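Case study.
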Amino acid sequence: MTLAGYAARRLIAAVPTLIGITLITFLLLEILPGREAALAGPEGGSFLTGEAVARIRATYHLDEPAWRRYLEWLLRLCRWDLGDSILDGRPVSQVIQEAAVPTLVLNVVALAMAFCVSVPVGVGWARRRRAGRGGAGSLVSYLLYAFPNFAAALLLQQFFSVGLGLLPLQGTNDLPPGSPFWATARDLAAHLILPAVCLSYGSLAYLARFTRTNLLEVLTREHLLAARGRGIGETVLAWRHALRNALIPLITLLGLLVPALLGGSVLIETVFSWPGLGRLYFYSLQNRDFPVVLGLTTLTAILTLAGALLADLLCAIADPRFAEEVTR
Amino acid sequence: MGKGFARAWLSLALALALSGCRQATAPGGASHPAAADAGPVDGDWFTLPIDSDPTTLNFISGTDTYQELVARYVADTLVDEGPALETVPRLALSWEFSGDKKTLTLHLRRGVRWHDGAAFTSRDVVFTYRQVINPANRALNKIDLFRDVVEVSALDESTVRVVYREPTILALAAWSRIPIVAEHLFREGDFASSPVHRAPVGTGAYRFVSWERGRQLVLSANDDYFLGRPHLDRIVLKIIPSRSTQLQALLRGDVDWSPVPPEEWESRSRSADFRRRFRLFRYPVLYLWYIAWNEKSPFFSDSRVRTAMTLSIDRASYLRSVYRGAGTLAASIFHPHQFGYDPDLSPLPFDLERAGRLLDEAGWVRDPRDRVRRKGGREFRFTLLIFQGTPVQEQIAALLQEGLASNGVSVDIRILDFPALLDRLQKRDFEAAISGRLLTSDPDPTLFFHSDHQLGASNYVGYSDPEMDRLLLEGRHAFEPVERGAIYRRVQAILQRDQPYTFLFFPFSTAALSARFREVTLSPASGLLRWYPGLLNWYVPLELQKHPRG
Amino acid sequence: MSSPSTYRQGAMVCSAGLLVAALAPLLANDRPLVARVEGKLCLPALASYGGPASIFRCRRAADIDWRRGRAEGGRQILLDPPIHHGPLSTDLESVFRPPSREHPMGTDSLGRDVAARLVHGFPVAVLVGGLATGLALVLGLAFGAAAGSGGRWADLGLCRVIDLVACFPTLILALALVAAVDRPGLGTLVGAIALTRWTGIARFFRGEVLRQRALAYCDAARAAGARRPYLLARHILPNALPPILVTAAFSASSAILLESGMSFLGLGVSPPTPSWGAILAEAQKQTHPAWWLILFPTLALFFTVLGCNLLAEGHRDATDPRIL
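After joint prediction, the assembly is written out as follows.
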């Protein structure tokens, strides 16, 4: 079987998975109590009478059987119509788009930070070539990896924002739109630092260790002699190998990124009031805004499956042994 | 590992302890309230923060408070509430009821214009009424206001007649909640999805200018307003999601008003610098925190047990220390600023011994072996539902649990999210629950205490008392204040006796406003912004203006 | 740091955590450890364990309030626990106090001692984390075994199910499950967390089962007449155990983090149960900095998670020949 065939098979297998995910989400939302109360709005919920409940059920077609509503939603999905948000009436795709931008910005920056710091650190660490596990560096990486990130968020916020006043407390920006470009960029950067650091330090530790481990394989005496014979110094060899091998965890991480974006980000986004997808998901769930929740779940699922497939394909291209194993 | 750890721990702790000592710096912007001023001048903006975007600017279907705030300035209602919750004219200059109180005739102002120049007439009122009662418009929190209305008709260009099924004291008050929308703008297409709602047009003192989602909403003064142009040029509503950020924005000068969280109140009110720049306001809002005891459960059908529950929680100390005095103890559902409030009725005290005696009387006796209260073999152990969001419910629940534990009663606390809790309340599927409730300016509590399913739609606890039922209906139809007051005093006495709910407290709203604004009056019940004409009288002396005209 | 050392450190930290969890009522309690009442010696703190331990109460017929009147008539306190406050005892006169002699880690919004709540957070973490991981293990092993040894169609179907659950963001899934259940309690929380953790174990064990079944010794066993469940239990599982334990240890630490995350958002353990996440949530809701409410629970969380991770890493380093 060729790689293309493998990809095709995965894509086909993804369809029932996708339908399954949306179905489960739909059912989960069905059994969540308090629909009518949430739909009546923040103050309306308190004044709900029996007739008001009936009215709400009629308005939102809640009296139709669940399977029919699910099928309707599925059919609309095929036309790429995610419906409208119940809370503010705007199309779900627009709502998601608005929240996706801050999340993407935050996570891309965090990922970039993690990579830009961890690869050089890993390289330098490997080149020191301490015996065994790596001493103090290893300890630091364990500590970083274990430190709970939302608690770190609170601590950093306390220290840098409330305590020292160096960095803004929350939100994405303080300047009104139309401000000069550099001022806006600086403002955004200032707001980004803390949340990005909190998101990235865990993967940073892991990646640094991974890089080091991989490099140690390469920096054995035999390899080095062979390389020097070819005219390549240790530095170049180390960096070339490091970067090539760093691709694999990067790809894996990207594949796993998407569910992490929503799940892991909720806490950080709550602490820093970052208007991203995680917070949107939590807020929509709490307020029973079903179209948005369904839309987000579908999107996540598609991206996760696509990401996993892409990760596997890229690994297959990069590593022929893996390709062989996969296409068997 | 050990020593290094300890040192790191200590230095981190030290750093954080130092960070707590830092004072927030307040940038410049001194104001001198004592400076002589030449009287009202036009100019300057009022910028205030709101927690999130309004969900919609459709004034008929919108249910959230931000949308209501915008509606308050862009549109007008027929009547409104003045500073003391009295009814004041707005678009309706005068009104009268017929002899049998079933017909209300409203005389509208003449010469009022919509922001687009068209004339305001009685047809707009009839049109608004029709939109509210149309189920397709989902006017969920307004449609019930017109429950008793038979017909609304325009007698002539400036007279509207409303016919009711039966006389009700709430007739006029209902019209203070309905912003009037323009009939001529919605002639084509569907009302609910009309693009007009994205840029609403009203008759109000401020015109809608722009709305950038997630950032701000801008309104600007209407030169042709029937009470005269408001002095402030603009109202800007900035979206700032968290209370602490709002306060910081106030300190920086980005906004002119901000709520002040209760725990900040003391330190801010003592700071001379803060008092120079800002005026602090504190007023009780029409909101009640309560604990509901379901009378269908075997535990709470006896009023002695319910009274014992109320006696088991030290509400006064809670308000004083944890809530920093930012609330008034409630003896019943009547708010101190509502009509009919009985000031002589004092809330039940904190008295664990008396609670114990009442429980003994009701048959819940302590088992000598394990000190747990039982009755007929059943242990006194119940589930208390709370919702997550603010710390109040968790704290009250924890205090109640502690108080009851020392009296041999066990409480299991469960957190639900708000819609789930409301759902359980409505289905009467709970034993005890803590919740909060907005009150209306009219004190009629029929919704909460009447035993009939329709009339007492919010009677989640299943309270039923024939005398109460009779009094509630009488109160609704008593048009004489003295008579009505006597009825409601009796209602409050019965509530004290029966304790269908444990009435916790009415929270205060605490806010700070930039000191440069003049003619600012606080309505003790509605606060700074939600009464009429309220903000329309504010102005800023020329030398203090941040955004002068021109 | 060599691998036995990592393992040892992890084991030390975890044992310390487990010890604190087990001894919590003896470490922080407003009842004394040893007291003399009416001439008789008794151990009131032990009675906090509940159930049969109540015989250690001082007097059968009365409930002594040890917080007030500590040295009243006839009572004599011989030994106090190191932290002589309970996790649930409120004191409305001393809310939000910074660390002091009386309260070395300060007090929270209801005047409860933070150190006491921290100590009592250990049993919560251990219970929730441990139970959730155990449940996840059972589910994961069952699914993995069924998928790996059930033939092609079973494998295909079950793999779809595993992919499906894995695609859900964990926090949201857990929150939705807790919200959906009618009468939520600790069991619901444990179940919800377990349901989000099992897929990794399932995937791994399926791989192991497939791999092992292809090996020679399995053929031999099958030729000798061994049935599938026997094969799984007696041969495959023990061989796959070391990496499973590693995964389990990592799972435990992420389960604890998940629980504190949920408590932080307000939908975890019910109040006033002392969960570290709940204490952090309180801190976040205040605008006035209460650094003691943030630092100490963070350290406790960190310490626990670190212990589990070190244990897992050390175990992996010791048993997995592939890692250098």
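Observations recorded in class. Residues 216 and 312 of chain A are 25 Å apart (CA to CA). Chain A has a mean pLDDT of 76. We will return to this complex in the next lecture.
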